[in-house]
Write a structure and sequence with these properties.
- The chain contains ten helices and twelve strands.
- The chain is α/β, with parallel strands linked by helices.
- It folds into three domains: 7-87, Orthogonal Bundle (Arc Repressor Mutant, subunit A), CATH 1.10.10; 92-162 and 270-296, Periplasmic binding protein-like II (D-Maltodextrin-Binding Protein, domain 2, 3-Layer(aba) Sandwich); 164-268, Periplasmic binding protein-like II (D-Maltodextrin-Binding Protein, domain 2), CATH 3.40.190.10.
- The strands form three sheets. Strands 3, 4, 5, 6, 7, 10, 11 and 12 form an eight-stranded mixed sheet that branches. The protein has a two-stranded antiparallel sheet with strand order 1-2. It has a two-stranded parallel ribbon with strand order 8-9.
- The longest helix has 28 residues, at 63-90.
- The chain is globular, with a radius of gyration of 21 Å.
Length: 300
């Protein structure tokens, strides 16, 4: 039944699950939607099981699909480790990798990515820097990798997608909205809101609050995400943060998180890296692969 199963098919199924649609998955993989659909049908026919339920445009894994994904992700992780090992044997890299995040929201996952990188390239030093003008620093070769959200960049730079993270409402445990299982934009009408950047400039405002004409009771700019969580815990307001950035505090019961209802099913943000286009630096690619591996291994 599994004779001839190919690594690329594992990647196809994994990408479909990550994006939720054939259209987005095909775009990320650089193939046509019809080609990806045909590959999926051939694989399901070979397995004798449907891997996804087609619900409108959404692709929802079946029970067999979940089992397939568990094994596929395990195989792909092991393959990545093997490839990294043999790349390391080809050339013992030395030098310095200069990385700058433009948001403290990435610090819950950045240490794990750095640890993975050090295991593969112990001879490469890592500099974690703060750059006010991320794009200029990369273009002028003061920086190798900028961790950010997707943005327009000049032609000499390239934006590389890393992973998606779901935005969650973060509330004090005794907040009235904590009684709901999920929240819509209208639930934030009249709320005291805390956020780490100017609201009007944020994707949150443009995609979630503004389309519904939501008016807040107050807005407080707090540039340190950890401080935002502490202020929420103290009952001074509510916020929206990526799931991964607040997972530890939610698990401890310091705050309550709730999923968001939106026309897009859920509200997600995509982490990305900015690098110099066409630069031959294998350890830069290895670092980005480590970020993705860390994201794949995160607890649900």
């Amino acid at each position: 039944m599994l004779n001839g199963l190919e690594i690329r098919q594992l990647r196809f199924v994994k990408k479909i699950n990550e994006t939720g649609t054939l259209t987005r998955a095909a775009g990320d993989l650089g193939i046509t939607q019809s080609g990806l659909s045909q590959q999926l049908l051939l694989l399901e026919d070979r397995l004798g099981r449907a891997l996804f339920e087609r619900t409108g445009r959404r692709m929802i894994p079946t029970e067999s699909g979940h089992r397939f994904l568990e094994h596929a992700e395990s195989v792909l992780r092991e393959l990545a480790v093997m490839e990294a090992y043999f790349r390391r044997l080809e050339s013992e890299h030395t030098g310095t990798l200069r990385v700058s995040p433009d948001s403290l929201l990435c610090f819950p996952w950045l240490p794990g990515a750095m640890r993975r990188f050090r295991e593969i390239y112990p001879g490469v030093n890592i500099q974690l820097r703060g750059e006010r003008n991320l794009l200029s620093a990369i273009a002028r070769k003061r920086l190798d990798v900028g961790l950010t959200f997707p943005r327009e960049v000049p032609p000499e730079l390239e934006v590389v997608s890393l992973f998606d993270d779901e935005m969650l409402a973060v509330l004090p445990p005794q907040h009235p909205l904590a009684a709901k299982t999920s929240l819509s934009a209208k639930d934030f009408e009249g709320a005291d809101f805390l956020y780490h950047m100017e609201l009007e400039e944020s994707v949150l405002h443009q995609r979630f609050l503004a389309p519904k004409g939501i008016r807040l009771a107050s807005f407080t700019l707090v540039e340190q995400p950890e401080a935002i969580v502490s202020l929420v815990q103290a009952g001074l307001g509510v916020t929206l943060l990526p799931k991964w950035s607040v997972a530890r505090q939610a698990a401890a019961g310091d705050v309550v998180t709730r999923r968001l209802r939106s026309p897009h099913r859920d509200f997600r943000v995509r982490w990305a890296a900015v690098i110099r286009r066409g630069e031959d630096a294998s350890f830069v690619s290895e670092f980005l692969d480590g970020v993705r591996a860390e994201a794949e291994a995160r607890p649900e």
